C-alpha cells in the first residue's frame, strides 16, 4: 500500500517520505546459491531478505529481525505451512502496524516468523538463512523483478512499457500460475523466484505422454529426466521431473532458469503480469525507475 499524505499542514519529514514513495525504489539484488537476496532498510536498520514470490505470505522474519522492528506485536496465533518436500512447519504470527521498507509504506502487515523450508537438492542446496519477502507483500504494490539485471523495483505506479508482453496467468493459492507448453503437452507452473531450478510432476508428464530427455543433475549413477518447454518470444526452460506433494495442485514450478531469461512485471491489484526478454529494458521503463 502506498503511503498517503493528508492535511494542509504536513511535516517536512512526512512530505519527503511521500515523495520518495511515489518516486519508487530500485533495490539491487545478489544471488546466493542462485537465489535473489536484497538488502532492505526498515526503521534505519538494514537486513538481508530473500525475494520469494513462491511464498504467498507478506514477510517471514527471523527472530533477530523481529526483535528490531518497532511496534511488532505477536498475535499469539500460529500458522501452519507445508513446503514442496512435504514438511509441515508452524510459524508465529505477528502484526506490524506500519511497515516501511526503503521509504515505501506498506501500512499494517501481518507476517510470520521465519522457519527454514524448501526442497533441497544437492549437498550445497537450501535457501539462504534470511528473512523473506513474499508475494503477499505486493498485493497492492506493482513490482518488476529482473534477475539478469539483479534489480527489484517497487514503490511507484509502474506500467509495462515497450518490450513487455502480457502473460496469461492465474492467481491461485500457490501463487501466480502460467501455462508453458511444447506442442505435445501443456503444464501449469507456479512462479518461484527462490527456486534454483524448475520442476514438473512425473505424473503430469506421463498423463500427457510427453517426451523426456536424460540429465545428470544428481551426478553419476543417479539418472534424472527433463522436459523442454517453450517461452513466449523464444527460448526454453527444462524442468526436472520430480515428485511433489499431493496438496500441490499445479503441475510444477518455474525457477531461476525462467527468471534468468525473462524480467517479470506483476500488478496483482489489477490482475496484470507481463514478461520481457532480459537485457531489453525499454527507455520508458528505465526513466520511471530512476
UniProtKB/TrEMBL annotation:
It comes from the Bacteria. Residues 1-23 form the signal peptide. Keywords: Signal. This is Aspartyl protease. It comes from Pseudoduganella dura.
Amino acid at each position: 500500500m502506498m503511503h498517503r499524505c493528508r492535511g494542509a499542514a504536513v511535516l517536512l519529514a512526512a512530505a519527503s517520505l511521500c515523495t520518495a514513495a511515489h518516486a519508487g525504489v530500485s533495490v539491487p539484488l545478489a544471488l546466493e546459491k542462485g537465489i535473489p537476496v536484497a538488502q532492505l532498510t526498515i526503521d534505519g536498520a538494514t537486513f538481508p531478505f530473500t525475494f520469494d514470490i513462491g511464498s504467498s505470505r507478506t514477510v517471514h522474519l527471523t527472530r533477530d529481525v523481529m526483535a528490531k522492528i518497532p511496534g511488532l506485536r505477536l498475535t499469539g496465533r500460529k500458522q501452519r505451512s507445508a513446503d514442496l518436500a512435504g514438511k509441515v512447519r508452524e510459524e508465529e504470527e505477528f502484526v506490524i502496524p506500519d511497515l516501511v521498507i526503503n521509504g515505501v509504506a506498506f501500512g499494517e502487515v501481518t507476517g510470520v516468523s521465519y522457519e527454514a523450508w524448501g526442497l533441497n537438492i544437492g549437498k550445497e542446496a537450501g535457501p539462504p538463512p534470511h528473512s523473506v519477502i513474499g508475494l503477499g507483500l505486493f498485493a497492492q504494490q506493482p513490482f518488476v523483478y529482473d534477475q539478469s539485471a539483479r534489480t527489484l523495483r517497487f514503490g511507484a505506479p509502474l506500467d509495462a512499457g515497450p518490450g513487455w508482453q502480457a502473460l496469461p496467468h492465474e492467481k491461485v493459492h500457490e501463487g501466480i500460475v502460467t501455462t508453458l507448453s511444447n506442442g505435445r503437452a501443456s503444464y501449469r507452473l507456479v512462479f518461484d523466484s527462490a527456486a534454483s531450478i524448475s520442476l514438473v510432476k512425473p505424473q503430469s508428464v506421463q498423463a500427457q505422454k510427453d517426451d523426456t530427455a536424460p540429465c545428470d543433475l544428481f551426478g553419476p549413477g543417479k539418472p534424472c529426466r527433463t522436459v523442454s518447454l517453450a517461452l513466449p518470444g523464444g527460448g526454453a526452460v527444462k524442468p526436472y521431473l520430480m515428485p511433489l506433494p499431493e496438496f500441490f495442485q499445479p503441475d510444477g514450478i518455474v525457477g531461476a532458469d525462467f527468471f534468468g531469461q525473462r524480467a517479470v512485471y506483476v500488478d496483482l491489484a489489477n490482475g496484470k503480469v507481463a514478461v520481457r526478454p532480459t537485457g531489453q529494458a525499454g527507455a520508458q521503463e528505465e526513466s520511471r525507475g530512476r
